[in-house]
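Work Package 4 report. The design task specified in the project plan requires that, given a folded chain encoded as structure tokens, an amino acid be chosen for each position. We show below one input record used in the internal validation round.
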């Protein structure tokens, strides 16, 4: 199996899960107004999701793995290509350099937003303490 075919199978599984989650949210009364963004770091899978023809090298792939292409054509999803360098899912699937590990860890654990909130909280606390209100 090629990496493109494996990525297409993962996108098909994602599409099936996405339909289930969308059904649950619709049942709860929350309709999605926009297409859901789905990312892949495999250029071949991205290209196959964006064209409705097959080539000599992709004819062996089962039709069932093109579910994401069908959802994209129906306007339910948007499939975007993401560089392998900026893909946070690589944290779980590849051996990374320390710099890439730290970057993806901050993204996955949402540490960049928390660090920003903590800094804003420290600034607010310092401003409140210097104003003499006494209450924080």
């Amino acid at each position: 199996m090629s990496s493109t075919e494996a990525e297409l199978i993962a996108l098909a599984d994602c599409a099936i899960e996405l339909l289930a989650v969308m059904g649950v949210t619709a049942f709860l009364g929350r309709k999605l107004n926009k297409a859901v963004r789905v990312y892949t770091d495999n250029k071949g899978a991205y290209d196959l999701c964006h064209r409705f023809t097959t080539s000599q090298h992709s004819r062996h792939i089962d039709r069932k793995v093109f579910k994401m292409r069908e959802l994209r054509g129906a306007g339910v999803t948007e499939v975007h290509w993401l560089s392998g360098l900026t893909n946070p899912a690589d944290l779980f699937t590849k051996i990374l350099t320390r710099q890439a590990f730290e970057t993806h860890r901050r993204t996955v654990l949402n540490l960049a937003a928390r660090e920003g909130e903590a800094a804003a909280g420290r600034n607010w606390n310092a401003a409140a303490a210097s104003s003499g209100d006494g209450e924080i």
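The radius of gyration is 21 Å. Validation will be extended to a larger panel in the next phase.
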